[in-house]
């Protein structure tokens, strides 16, 4: 049985809650991703920030990217999976929540990240199509 541990990229890249939006934008660009987990000062996952958050919640509101912290604009509600969850549970979490990346938590510790592309490499084409369609629905 394929599990999240088999699919995930580890260690996961993340941002600190105290990082500025400028740092976040550079990290997303460097990693060529549209979202990244955010970890608080206690080391626990506290949110996820997307390129859309940076544009809609920050730039469009006139916030200073050099002084505004990531935790001021990130989404605090984060969908995650555990390392022992099977591929079906991972696909379901992506589909039901319409997200393209899932943090993998072992207890409170961020141990990896799974992307839509990771699922596409594992599932048959028809099932991958179903997941992508579910993620992309309006």
Automatic annotation (TrEMBL):
InterPro entries linked: CBS_dom, CBS_dom_sf, Diverse_CBS-Domain
Entries under PROSITE patterns matching the protein: CBS
Keyword Endoplasmic reticulum: no
Boundaries of every CBS domain copy: 8-65, 74-131
Record keywords, A-Z: CBS domain, Kinase, Transferase
GO molecular function terms noted in the UniProt entry: kinase activity
Pfam family, one: CBS
Annotated PANTHER family: CBS DOMAIN-CONTAINING PROTEIN, CBS DOMAIN-CONTAINING PROTEIN CBSX3, MITOCHONDRIAL
Protein name: Histidine kinase
Organism: Knoellia sinensis KCTC 19936
Organism classification: Bacteria, Bacillati, Actinomycetota, Actinomycetes, Micrococcales
């Amino acid at each position: 049985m394929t599990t999240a541990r088999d699919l995930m990229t580890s260690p996961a890249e993340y941002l600190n809650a105290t990082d500025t939006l400028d740092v976040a934008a550079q990290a997303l660009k460097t990693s060529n991703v549209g979202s990244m987990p955010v970890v608080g000062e206690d080391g626990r996952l506290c949110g996820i920030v997307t390129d859309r958050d940076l544009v809609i919640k920050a730039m469009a509101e006139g916030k200073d990217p050099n002084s505004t912290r990531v935790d001021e604009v990130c989404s605090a509600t984060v969908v995650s999976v555990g390392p022992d969850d099977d591929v079906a549970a991972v696909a379901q979490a992506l589909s039901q929540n319409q997200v393209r990346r899932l943090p993998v938590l072992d207890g409170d510790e961020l141990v990896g990240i799974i992307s839509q592309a990771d699922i596409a490499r594992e599932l048959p084409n028809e099932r991958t199509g179903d997941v992508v369609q579910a993620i992309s629905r309006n």
